[in-house]
Amino acid sequence: MPHALDDTFHALADPTRRAMLLRLSEGEQPIAALAQPFDMSLWGAAKHVRVLEQAGLVKCRKVGRSTLCSLRPGPLAQADQWLRQWERFWSSGLDRLEALVKADKENPR
Q1: Residue 97: is its pLDDT beyond 80?
Q2: Residue 31's CATH number
Q3: Would the pTM count as exceeding 0.85?
C-alpha cells in the first residue's frame, strides 16, 4: 500500500491533474476535453492522464480515434484513510489547546 499511496500523492501533487480528476468526477471525458480548460496540447494532457492512470486514479479506453477516461476513486479512498490518522492527531492537539485556554480564562493570574 505505501507504494500505491506514493503514486496517488504524486499524481495529486499537480493542480492540473487535480482539476482533471474533478472534471472526471462528473463523468467520462475524452482527453481532448480534459486538455481544453488548460489550453494545452493533446500530448501534454495525455502525459497528465498517464500519471493519473499509473496511480490507478483513472481508467482509459480507446473508442475510435479518441481516448475516453473515467475516474477510479479507490486510491482516493486509501489516501483519505491515511490522512484521517493525521486529522485525529491535529484534533487531539487542538482539543488540548482549547482546554488550556479555557482553564486559563477560568483561572486568571
Answers
A1: no
A2: 1.10.10.10
A3: no
